[in-house]
Specification:
Blueprint (H helix, E strand, L loop, with lengths): L4 H23 L7 H26 L1 H31 L7 H29 L3 H17 L15 H9 L12 E4 L2 E4 L1 H25 L5 H22 L9 H22 L19 H47 L1
Antiparallel strand pairs: 1-2
């Protein structure tokens, strides 16, 4: 897939325009983002991603478009796991609700810049060393096994501990104890201070960067095209902020999300290893010759990813609904016993 420089520039410029419009419209007057507003923005960003994918279909064919959509859906679904960490960070720093959208916007913009660097390095490594797919595939399978043992619906540790990046930022700038409206920096007695808003933005951006260690190899398992990897990541991140406000309390109800994401990562990891074997050049494997092993195409990959996400969401909601009903029944059965004890007294 040959992508002219002007297409790269036009894509990046278009993404920046979308971010600028979002910043002007939503953050022009700080306010609490409502569910309805968040739903409209999520729909808008998904529509933009779909339109972009259709454009790829028209100009580059269905295979490339399928790779984009598979990558976009995978990145978006993996990003949902980030939202729980975002909730923990927002609570730990006691970020006022009216400023949370701005924090997410700047934090994710930083993450997009760093992810762009990751993608460039990953694309260069893959083009030069075919064995990188073995490494990525094995890493994804390992991550899948590790992730399957955790749960999103309450098993995470909600005690946030600042990472090295945020600690370094605190050393670089003196930080005020209180928020100063929407200011990132402020002056007190002629001395320049960073506000907690600045530290939270760094925390959000660096936290998302840690998640990129899993998601970037995963999308390279679906497409080797750096342009598609970058654009899929960009659209997934841009829609992530509004998804944060839309899901809200629903996030903790997705109790099987980690298992679903583990299945997806494991599937992509196996896909990468099979492809690496199919195009093998390592001399200690089959004498450096290709192995005649089956490979997994994009249609099957897309079907598996969507299917796993649907099953995960339905199973999670069914379980939480069943648990809520059981809790309500236990509360109802306990009330008569308490009334009887009161009458006896």
């Amino acid at each position: 897939m040959i992508v002219p420089v002007w297409v790269w520039l036009a894509t990046i410029g278009g993404l920046l325009v979308l971010l600028a419009v979002d910043l002007v419209i939503v953050d022009r007057k700080p306010h609490e983002v409502t569910v309805g507003e968040a739903a409209r923005w999520v729909t808008f960003y998904i529509a933009c991603a779909v339109a972009f994918g259709i454009g790829i279909w028209i100009f580059s064919g269905g295979t490339r478009a399928g790779e984009f959509f598979a990558g976009y859906i995978t990145e978006y679904s993996l990003s949902v796991d980030n939202l729980f960490i975002f909730l923990v960070i927002m609570a730990a720093f006691k970020v006022p609700t009216i400023h949370q959208h701005k924090v997410l916007l700047v934090g994710i913009l930083l993450a997009l810049v760093f992810r762009g660097i990751f993608i460039a390095v990953g694309a260069a490594a893959i083009s030069q060393f075919s064995w990188v797919f073995y490494v990525f595939g094995a890493f994804l399978v390992y991550t899948a096994i590790k992730l399957s043992g955790s749960g999103l619906g309450g098993d995470h540790d909600e005690d946030y501990e600042e990472n090295r990046v945020t600690k370094w930022a605190r050393k670089l700038f003196p930080v005020t104890d209180d928020y100063h409206e929407a200011k990132v920096f402020t002056k007190i007695d002629g001395k320049r201070f960073a506000t907690p808003l600045f530290i939270v933005m760094i925390a959000i951006g660096s936290a998302d960067l840690m998640f990129a260690v899993d998601s970037i190899p995963a999308i390279f398992g679906l497409t080797k095209e750096a342009f598609l990897v970058f654009s899929a990541n960009a659209f997934a991140l841009m829609g992530l902020r509004q998804l944060y406000f839309l899901l809200g309390g629903l996030l903790k109800r997705l109790v099987y999300l980690s298992i679903g994401l583990a299945v997806i990562l494991g599937f992509i990891g196996v896909k990468m290893v099979l492809e690496a074997l199919h195009t093998n050049t390592l001399p200690f494997i089959n004498g450096g010759e290709h192995l005649n092993v089956p490979t997994i195409g994009i249609p099957l990959s897309l079907s598996v990813i969507i299917g796993v996400l649907v099953i995960t969401a339905v199973a999670s909601l069914m379980k939480t609904r069943r648990d809520d009903r059981r809790t309500a029944e236990e509360v109802a059965s306990a009330e008569p016993a308490e009334d009887t004890a009161d009458q006896a007294r």
